[in-house]
Amino acid sequence: xxxxxxxxxxxxxxxxxxxxxxxxxxxxxxxHVGLRxxxxxxxxxxxxxxxxxxxxxxxxxxxxxxxxNLIVIEVRAAQNFRYGFxxxxxRKAFGIDMTGANVDDLPTxxxxxxxxxxxxxxxxxxxxxxxxxxxxxxxxxPQTWERLSLPLTNDKGDVKFILAAxxxxxxxxxx
Length: 175
Description:
By secondary structure, the protein is an alpha+beta fold. It contains 5 helices and 6 strands, in the order βααββααβββα.
């Protein structure tokens, strides 16, 4: 199902003072209009005092524009991650519905890559953006995707959920 491909990661600095100033740079880097829109939506929910949005006050009802391309990851104890929602674009592209499954249920190489990404988002409490190419789906088809992972905190300030959205950006997705 998965083989590692080229990846071009970019992340916002770990400094808590750089979130707003770095957002313009990240927005300029994001190619897909859907990801830029989601990032702007997330930024609008950031507290005026700084920091990242809280899960309980984040307007999930406003996520319908991105639902097909959205994954909601629940951050659990012991750095375990569970898919609470797995959008239809992913189910169709990869031939599997991961809703309710743990990241560890994926093939070893893919699980390792995603665990590292989710742990980074959890630790830094910052968005993470990347473009990656790999072979996916029933026909082991080469695909290129652009992905953005966005943290949401609980009342204690710990990352409780990660919103991850991805869009195919290769030629086949534009046909």
